[in-house]
Amino acid sequence: MIEVSIVAAPSVLWPALRDPSLIRRWFGWEYDGLDDEITQIYSTADADPEALTLKLGNGDRFSLLEQDGKTVVRIDRPAKSADDDWYDDITEGWTTFLQLLRFAVEHHGLAERRTIYLDGLLLPGENVATVLGLIEIELAAGSRYAATIAPGDYFEGVVDYVTDHQFGLTVEDLGPGLLSVATQSVTPQRPDGGMSILLTTYDLSDDEFDEIKHHWTSWWEGRRQGG
After folding, report:
1. CA distance to 49, 92, 100, 107, per residue, from 54 (Å)
2. End-to-end Cα distance, the chain
3. How far is Cα 151 from Cα 62, in angstroms, rounded to an integer?
4. Burial category of 167 from C-beta neighbours within 10 Å (exposed 0-12, middle 13-18, buried 19 and up)
5. Nearest to 25 by CA among 102, 140, 120
6. If you compute the radius of gyration of the chain from its CA atoms, what whole number of angstroms results?
7. In the structure, how many helices (H) and strands (E) does the chain have?
8. Contact criterion met (CB below 8 Å) for 105 and 97
């Protein structure tokens, strides 16, 4: 089970699970096939507007539960099968996306966003903190941080969330934006594990966003090539 508590009414959040134009403001990241992916996943879902539940074709089930003036958004996942190599990655993906939904609703009223996504293998002895240069940051939800991230950008904000395998940092100068970083599990294809980075930005000009995207992707490609 994965869940987040969001300061919003169920009537606000239910459309964010049904309207493709709103789903793309929190689900996944920008790429050419995002709209098709949303259509494939959500158009065939079994929706119950009265119960506020949504069951996807793979068995994942959303439910909205009103609680103390907030709404708990919960995903119940089917049991992992023995041959499902991607189950843990999907679980971590949903964890990130629910946090993005919460952040988008609470900070931006589910406004349009722009994203940068990077992922790849970890090398022996690496972890996400060493790759990003975040060793000295106290990863405690609610604590403030200020750091120069490995690509060379100075970020400051608040530790937005922390789970067993990922964390999110608000970035004040990006809207505020959200830097979501996840550790990917060890698999035969990832003997030392992997990591993913999703940088979500708001209210940037085209030039500002393009500059950040080029900066981050160039750093990531250089790292992968050993440069």
Report:
1. 8, 19, 18, 25
2. 40
3. 36
4. buried
5. 102
6. 18
7. 7, 11
8. no
Q: 23: Cβ–Cβ under 8 A, 6 or more apart, which residues?
A: 16, 17, 38, 42
- Tell how strand 114-121 and strand 194-201 pair up: antiparallel
Amino acid at position 29, single letter: W
Cis bond upstream, residue 176 (ω within 30): yes
Taking the complete model, does pTM exceed 0.85, yes or no? Answer: yes
Whether the CA torsion 64, 65, 66, 72 is positive or negative: it is negative
Cross-strand partners of 179: 169, 199
* 195-219: pLDDT as tens digits: 999 999 999 999 999 999 999 999 9
Helix runs in the chain, H state only: 10-13, 15-18, 20-23, 34-42, 87-108, 128-132, 206-224
